[in-house]
């Protein structure tokens, strides 16, 4: 596998942030705490704000994107489980 040098630029991670945010919808800082306690701190809160505004550097942007991707995967898994349960119980989704 060849590494793409764009994977290491802040622009690459900002694009990934925009993509994962579309999957999640609204970003809730408290949801992130489950994955990284750093987001309980004032620095973490500031970094989230800076990433949202595309002003953060490479490391804070990458860190947030990786956490958001874990969150997005878990939210998708929760939705899939709910849909399977509804189907098995022959209920209507609400």
Overview of this protein structure:
This protein is an all-alpha fold and 94 residues long. Helix content is 67%, strand content 0%. It is built from four helices and no strands. It has helices at residues 10-24, 29-33, 42-52, 58-89. Helix 1 (10-24) packs parallel to helix 4. The radius of gyration is 16 Å and the shape is globular. The chain starts with 9 loop residues before the first helix and ends in a 5-residue tail after the last helix. The mean pLDDT is 85.
The gist of it:
This protein is an all-alpha fold. About 65% of the residues lie in helices and about 0% in strands. The chain has helices at about 10-25, 30-35, 40-50, 60-90.
Query: Mean pLDDT across all residues, rounded?
Result: 85
Instruction: Please bin the fraction of helical residues.
Output: 55-70%
Distance between the termini: 44 Å
Q: Which structural category do the helix and sheet elements fall into?
A: mainly alpha
Helix and strand run: HHHH
Query: Approximately how much beta-strand content do the residues carry?
Result: under 5%
Quickly list its features.
mainly alpha, globular, 94 residues, 67% helix, single chain
Topology:
Layout: H1 10-24, H2 29-33, H3 42-52, H4 58-89
Helix pairs in contact: 1-4
């Amino acid at each position: 596998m060849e590494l793409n040098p764009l994977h290491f630029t802040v622009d690459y991670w900002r694009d990934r942030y925009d993509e994962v945010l579309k999957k999640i919808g609204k970003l809730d800082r408290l949801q992130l705490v489950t994955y990284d306690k750093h987001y309980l701190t004032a620095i973490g809160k500031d970094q989230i704000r800076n990433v949202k505004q595309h002003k953060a550097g490479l490391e804070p942007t990458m860190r947030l994107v990786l956490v958001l991707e874990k969150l997005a995967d878990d939210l998708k898994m929760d939705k899939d489980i709910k849909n399977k349960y509804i189907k098995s119980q022959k209920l209507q989704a609400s």
